[in-house]
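G., the chain you wanted modeled:
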Amino acid sequence: MCQKQCRDENGFKCHTMSESHQRQLLLFAENPDKYIDQFSQEFLDDFMHLLKRRFGTKRVHANQVYQEYISDRNHLHMNATQWETLTEFVKWLGQKGHCNVDETEKGWFISYIDRDPETIMRQEALKKQKKMKLDSEERMAKFMQQQMQFDQEKSRSIPDTVYTELKRNDDDEKIVFSMKSEGKFKKPVTDLKQNPLVATTSKTNISSSSTKKGNDEQKRKRALDEIIEQEQRIREKKSRSDYWLAPGIIAKVVSKKLGEEFYKKKVIVKEVQDHYFATVQLIDSNEETIAHQKHLETVIPNIGRKVKVLNGAYRGCEALLLEVNFDSFSVKVKITSGIFKGKILDGVKYEDVSKLEIQT
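Predicted structure as tokens:
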């Protein structure tokens, strides 16, 4: 009530005997619920603000949050609120839906439920994006089915070769074969000089058949290339997003909001929360903090080092840096993992790749 910090027991005793303390007690006696509700609300606001700012939606021990709360010398004591113990307060948070609460052998654990309008908007945007992915996949499946039906109809239109039995009339002239024992057997040779028509016909047939085969192969290649390009465009569209953080990459702090000890320093992304926030650790020390992706930027290593693709159709793939184009602010990489292993990507933007942490 008095909001006064006494220095020792004697000071507390003198204060309880003072006129100001007696006056505050009279005010409290007139309407105790008003003051208890006010102190309870103030305690709740400060506690939830600390939980959201320090731990986010991460699951954490309730006593750890409370110890950080009371480390502030100007904090409001729990004995001034409607809750007598921390356990009672944690149960109340779970009943009112402020936090997710669970009890284990080690004690009570809580995790903050983020109902911020911006967070809800981001979640709705993610839902819409997932729905668009499903729609694009359905369109692709329908296109593939139509292509298969077209190929089947095309194959049916080609008449099948029919084989018939050889028949000979009785009036036909009989063919008599005579064999001579003298000399060696020789293969019949067609004289192209005497029969130019035979040579011309054979050449025409060979060239026409080879041309037809070449045209069919070119058409198949063209159709296959179109399908591959369309699949890549769809995969690029549905995989492209406005967030790029990933665990295990190395980034650079570009904002002073994280403190002077982090500014312009390289950090390792340890854990990603809600796509836009990450727990980062300084490379030089074990000091950690939570940072938004707008306070970070990607790091391009030396040629020959490993990077991770952070956005686009090949998001999540590890790659090897082959070349850096300073004029177009892009790089050339070769994928070294996953189903796209060995594929070379050119013109990848700086912000779509970042250096990988060296595993020891």
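The CA atoms of residues 23 and 237 lie 69 Å apart.

Shout if anything looks off.
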